[in-house]
Write a structure and sequence with these properties.
By secondary structure, the protein is α+β, with helices and mostly antiparallel strands. It contains 16 helices and 19 strands.
């Protein structure tokens, strides 16, 4: 018994010393260069097969690499693939892989050392996205691959260790952009098999940072990958940072105060109750903070909208006045987007008075695609036509949202009440909100779509009937035969002008059928501490930390 107690005491001492060493090694800013940021929405998985939302995408971007990547100007660049060719018919993509990329170290690998990535790993990783047992929400990204075994070849084919082929059913010009998504990063089969469903919290990738710990709801720590394959222009190995620390503070006012006290290095957006302290009325940074904070802004390929479930096979749709197109159109006419952006967003962003494709993409054209302006009289006429004069006889509609967008939804609620539409705003936690939308449990909901790749097709995929959620991004369950025909034509069209014409015709159909209520086209805003260098900004708001430097205190 004495020996047992001594053993326990020694173990506790060892754990305490280890914890102290860990704290000294990773948390002391004078000892290590740690980039700290907060995810108020939380992270649900570190498995790239589930990189559906921006929080998961950022985390996976730190941990993994794919064949290709995008720079801040959204140009497609090599990553693990050093070069590639596309066949003349546009249906075969051949990638030539680097031979110096290794997975992060793990005990499952031989001698605990990460092994070299091969084309066979990509064959496994891409087939895994299509595996029904995995149930990845990214399965739709491979809608155009030819994976019919009876044709005598595989969709994804490792020719040898460094040569990888992908076969498409038809030409699809945006495909290279799709391959830059985090869904398309590489994972090791033996590690996934080892952890099974727990792989979400035990990730092994090839990225600039490797997983250390995740205390869910509290903190996540990623460490520098000492064996990372990319170098800077001077030949110095990336990344420069020693670690990344992510917290999960839900209160954005607390998050903002921590940023002002330099406990957080970076904030995306301008949320938080203290924002009035550092921003002028037009949304610019007050001069008194210019020496303390760097502010970066850029047009954001993000459309904020309200989604409306229109699948008439669902009971919640049949029982709702939103099943009537005229009611959906009345809602679109029934509130002032310009006023909303001016009062609630300090003119950060552009009122969405055109289609679903946002400002910043070449197929965006408000002269051709005309959306909804504020027209309460027109809205009232539509309600009369729908059988609800001044809203009489119309049941109350519930609009589901998250904490960040309550003010916008309440603004819409108030203005719609003036034309006779009664709306109840229901607040749900962000994670719950996403899951309920994916499972078609919410009839009217606030949502956003951030471009995964810079092409209008990425936005229009949300209304293609074969992309019904939860297996794709069609959260409204919109289905229209003419739309589907145009979408399929556009996918194989290599002429940009013709493809953009198809995009605009589809956008017009979305406006007419109104399965959504567009709110605004967003703007990226980044607030950064002055000792952080090399953190750029891009139209998809992808957080890339491999080239970030933090000056010593």
């Amino acid at each position: 018994m004495v020996m047992f107690r001594l053993f326990i005491l020694c173990s506790l001492i060892a754990v305490t010393l280890f914890s102290c060493l860990e704290k000294t090694h990773y948390d002391d800013p004078s000892n290590k260069k740690i980039f700290r940021y907060n995810e108020s929405e939380g992270i649900t998985s570190l498995d790239p097969a589930f990189s559906r939302n921006i929080e998961n995408i950022w985390a996976c971007n730190h941990l993994y690499n794919g064949l290709l990547q995008m720079d801040n100007a959204l140009n497609v660049e090599p990553a693990i693939a050093k070069k590639w060719e596309i066949s003349e018919d546009g249906k075969t993509y051949t990638f030539h892989l680097r031979s110096d990329v290794r997975f992060h170290d793990h005990q499952v690998f031989k001698n605990g050392k990460g092994r070299t990535v091969t084309a066979h790993d990509f064959e496994y990783s891409f087939n895994r996205i299509l595996d029904n047992k995995v149930a990845s929400p990214g399965v739709w990204i491979f809608n155009n691959v030819d994976y019919l075994e009876e044709k005598g070849f595989k969709a994804f084919d490792a020719i040898d260790d460094t040569t990888f082929n992908i076969y498409l059913t038809k030409p699809f010009p945006p495909f290279l952009g799709i391959l830059t998504m985090q869904y398309c990063t590489v994972v090791p089969q033996e590690i996934v098999n080892h952890y099974k469903y727990d792989y979400r919290s035990n990730p092994i990738g090839t990225g600039p940072f490797k997983f250390k710990m995740w205390d869910e709801g509290n903190k996540m720590v990623l460490l520098k990958n000492e064996n990372y394959f990319e170098k800077d222009e001077a030949g110095n190995q990336l990344p420069y940072l020693d670690a990344v620390a992510i917290t999960f503070i839900k209160d954005e006012e607390v998050e903002f105060l921590k940023f002002l006290s330099k406990e957080i290095d970076f904030i995306s957006g301008r949320e938080g109750g203290n924002k009035e302290e550092i921003f002028d009325a037009d949304g610019s940074l007050k001069s008194s903070y210019e020496d303390q904070i760097t502010m970066l802004t850029h047009p954001y390929l993000n459309t904020e909208y309200l989604g409306i479930l229109v699948d008439d096979e669902l009971g919640i749709v049949k029982a709702s006045p939103l099943s009537k197109k005229l009611v959906r159109q009345a809602i679109n006419y029934g509130f002032d987007r310009k006023q909303m952006i001016a009062f609630l967003r300090k003119n950060i962003g552009t009122p969405a008075n055109a289609g679903f494709i946002p400002k910043g993409l070449p197929s965006y054209n408000p002269e051709i695609v005309k959306g909804y302006d504020y027209n309460p009289e027109k809205a009232k006429e539509l309600l009369v036509e729908a059988g609800f004069p001044n809203g009489e006889g119309m049941p109350e509609i519930t609009l589901y949202t998250t904490a960040n967008y309550v003010d916008l939804c309440e603004f819409i609620q108030h203005q719609l009440s003036e034309i006779g539409i009664s709306v109840k705003v229901d607040l749900t936690p962000a994670v719950t909100h996403r899951e309920l939308i994916a499972r078609s449990k919410l009839n009217f909901f606030r949502k956003s779509w951030i471009a995964d790749y810079p092409d209008g097709e990425n936005y229009l995929a949300l209304f293609y009937s074969k992309n019904f959620a939860p297996n794709g991004p069609n959260y409204t369950h919109f289905k229209n035969t003419n739309y589907d025909l145009l979408y399929e034509k556009a996918q194989s069209e290599t002429n940009d002008s013709t493809r953009y014409f198809y995009y605009q015709e589809m956008d017009k159909l979305i406006i007419e059928e109104a399965p959504i209520v567009t709110l605004y086209y967003d703007q990226v805003v980044r607030l950064i501490q002055k000792d952080i260098k090399g953190l750029g900004i891009n139209p998809v708001n992808l957080l890339t930390l491999k080239t970030v430097q933090k000056e010593a205190n």
